[in-house]
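Subject: sequence -> structure tokens, single chain

Hey, anyone have a minute? Need the predicted structure for the following. Not urgent.
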Amino acid sequence: MAVNINTVYTTVLYILNKEQRGYITPAEFNSLATQVQGEIFMSYFPDGNQLNRQNQNNTQNDTEFFNMFKDTAYKLYPFEKTANFTYNNAATVLGWEYTGVGVIFKLGEIISTYNTTNPQYDSITQLVSQSDFGKITRSKLTAPTVQYPLCTTGSSSGTTVLLKVDPLPNVLSVNCLFQPKAPRWDFTVGTLGQYLYANTSINFELDVSEQSSLIINILKYCGIIINDPTIIQAASQEAQQTSINEKS
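Reply:
Had a minute. Here:
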């Protein structure tokens, strides 16, 4: 379940205005919201790596709902999707182009399907660097086959993800991790000039358990904007304590 952006925005404003410490505009809030959501999203990877060490040492709590490594992995599930790649034989650089919406953060398992062979092969495809791809495909001893295909990444226009696969498959299926969409608090202007929440707003895509972290970390940046060190200090202490509680 995603975090409602209006809940976060109104809470942030309430805390700031409670002691008349200042105000941030919707545009400022949206910038901070995008920054903080990105920071929390990126924190899942080092946190998950650290928690996985407990699994390897058999010190992880494996009780249902209390395994922190699984909880962290669960927060990434909404961003894991199969990406649409289409082969473009008219491009300057031939290859499979990403044609979907959203920004790919990481490539996962790549399956190359060869359905004109008998039998059909749905082969796990190894992803290598461009230099290794060139060396391996040029060698007769290590040349890829339909059972053991090889691929590398590139870009066809500077931004579009491109995959070169050898041998060329009929269908390419790529499991990807996508970046969360930028949150946005949209508004209309009321009769008194006040900002009113609009249903065209975009909620945070993070798990609902991150609501407190979003509020605390946005407040930390708010303190910088309105030049109030007490807000920065209070928010930083709260964020630090929350992090210690989660990892202890």
